[in-house]
């Protein structure tokens, strides 16, 4: 294990621990999205609005691919968190080995098959004809990078489950810095490098992800991190049937949530594409800002889920409830603090991506005023779902998401489009998000999520000591660096 100072998430002030643990996650999200925004600025300014539309369409598919295995990663994070909270380090390492083997196999399968279907997927989304070719060139290379993206994402999530959020952040930051430097070189053909256009951005992602992943693995090996599996631990990479069963049983519903979100993104993008390149470009620019707005809620939800999982493993239910309350409060404070300036300063914000005074520029400002408020409500659902999933309760959050996205958002946008036009798409965001918040609050208050279990090997079925002995490695939580973690994706 690392010798650096550590603090368990099962003790100490809830608010302080949650905030300090979420800061590295938030910082990683910010760094990742800044990289995506810088990439979008290069593309929008030098390659044109059709290229910007191309990346918006291609990244909707990439988000779907990430979301399709998100549940398995989240399930492994929860299992690791519960095991660490219960002081069962051997169990945490078993989960790590089985999960890693799964992610390696599935990512290679996707990489090998995805490139062949890139054009068909983009065409099925209704990608505008002038954006189809560059989107295909970008997406084919991204498919090759999927194993690296999956590996980085999984390893980051596993480390957070053990309470270590600083390590993933540091190497994500390395990837971002390298990518920001390499992007324009490969896109514009600077120096001796060929001009690859939009595909250059994808090649930059592949190269920088490989370098950052290798550096992080070497660092874990050098520090003998509790989750590092070396040559003596190769047997842990053999699939444990019971762990895999739990990962699938709990991970599939959680993965379906992300799949439904990504499919809803694709459906909304398809609706927006009907209004032409100008509206699609406006929506793509708004997505850049919305990425930042939802970051606090996503970071707090990830931190709250890890903290709740460790406290469930330790049997500290009062801390689980306090984590939920504190997480919701932080969501309103931090998300609200971002929404106001992005409305008041929207002319300057959208000028980074679009030409001021253009139809796309004015459309972006209009839709932003309508839809950006929805992230306050959606953030509450994110946080509460993260807490209840930490016990193994995964079905009801899935149902809530199905209702809010596919029972309200997509039908609302479709059915009211003849009357409201593009505004039907924009208004569908706050309406569906408000419903999801109310349903999540009702389930948290009256649902039976506290009785859920992660499986037969749930640490709560074992005799868990009230305190972890001093000789047992305890969960590690960041407390020193107020710097903020996650995988590198271009938006």
Name its key features.
single chain, 491 residues, mainly alpha, 16 helices, 75% helix, disordered N terminus, disordered C terminus
Describe this structure in words.
This protein has 491 residues and is mostly helical. The chain has one domain. 75% of the residues lie in helices and 0% in strands. The chain has 16 helices and no strands. It has helices at residues 14-47, 49-85, 89-124, 129-161, 166-188, 198-223, 241-273, 277-293, 295-314, 317-344, 346-350, 359-371, 374-389, 395-415, 417-420, 423-446. The longest helix is centred in the N-terminal third of the chain and has 37 residues, at 49-85. The protein is globular.
Helical element count? 16
- Radius of gyration equals 22 Å
How many domain regions? 1
Which range best describes the helical content: under 10%, 10-25%, 25-40%, 40-55%, 55-70% or over 70%? over 70%
> What is the element string, with H for helices and E for strands?
HHHHHHHHHHHHHHHH
Shape: globular
How many extended strands?
0
Strand content: under 5%
> Strand pairing plus helix content: what structural class?
mainly alpha
Major sheet attributes: none
């Amino acid at each position: 294990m690392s010798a650096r100072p550590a603090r368990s998430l099962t003790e100490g002030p809830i608010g302080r621990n949650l905030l300090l643990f979420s800061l590295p996650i938030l910082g990683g999200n910010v760094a990742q999205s800044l990289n995506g925004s810088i990439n979008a600025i290069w593309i929008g300014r030098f390659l044109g609005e059709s290229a910007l539309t191309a990346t918006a369409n291609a990244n909707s598919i990439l988000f779907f691919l990430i979301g399709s295995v998100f549940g398995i990663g989240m399930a492994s994070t929860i299992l690791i968190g519960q095991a660490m909270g219960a002081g069962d380090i051997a169990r945490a390492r078993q989960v790590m080995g089985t999960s890693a083997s799964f992610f390696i196999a599935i990512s290679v399968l996707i990489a090998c098959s995805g490139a062949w279907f890139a054009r068909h997927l983009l065409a099925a989304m209704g990608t505008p004809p002038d954006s189809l070719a560059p989107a295909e060139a970008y997406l084919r290379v991204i498919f090759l990078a999927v194993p690296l993206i999956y590996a980085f994402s999984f390893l980051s999530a596993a480390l957070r489950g053990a309470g270590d959020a600083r390590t993933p952040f540091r190497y994500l930051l390395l990837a971002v810095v390298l990518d920001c430097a390499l992007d324009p070189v490969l896109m514009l053909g600077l120096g001796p490098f060929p001009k690859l256009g939009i595909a250059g951005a994808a090649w930059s992602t592949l190269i920088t992800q490989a370098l950052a992943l290798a550096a992080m693995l070497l660092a874990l090996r050098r520090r003998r991190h509790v989750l590092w599996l070396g040559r003596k631990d190769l047997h842990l990479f053999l699939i444990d049937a019971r762990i895999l069963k739990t990962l699938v049983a709990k991970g599939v519903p959680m993965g379906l949530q992300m799949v439904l979100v990504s499919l809803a993104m694709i459906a909304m993008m398809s609706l927006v594409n009907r209004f032409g390149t100008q509206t699609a470009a406006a929506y793509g620019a708004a997505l850049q800002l919305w990425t930042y707005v939802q970051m606090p809620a996503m970071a707090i939800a990830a931190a709250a889920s890890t903290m709740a999982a460790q406290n469930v493993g330790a049997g500290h239910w009062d801390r689980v409830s306090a984590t939920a309350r504190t997480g919701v409060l932080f969501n309103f404070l931090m998300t609200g603090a971002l929404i106001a300036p992005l409305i008041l300063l929207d002319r300057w914000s959208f000028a980074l991506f679009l030409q001021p005074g253009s139809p796309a520029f004015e459309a972006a400002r209009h839709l932003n005023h309508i839809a950006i408020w929805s992230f306050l409500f959606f953030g509450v659902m994110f946080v509460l779902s993260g807490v209840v999933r930490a016990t193994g309760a995964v079905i009801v959050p899935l149902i809530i998401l199905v209702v809010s996205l596919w029972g309200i958002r997509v039908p609302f946008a479709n059915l009211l489009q003849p009357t409201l036009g593009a505004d039907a798409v924009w208004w569908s965001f706050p309406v569906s998000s408000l419903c999801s918040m109310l349903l999540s609050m009702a389930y948290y208050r009256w649902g039976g999520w506290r009785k859920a279990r992660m499986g037969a090997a749930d640490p709560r079925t074992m005799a868990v000591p009230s305190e972890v002995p001093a000789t047992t490695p305890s969960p590690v939580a960041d407390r020193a660096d107020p710097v903020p973690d996650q995988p590198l994706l271009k938006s």
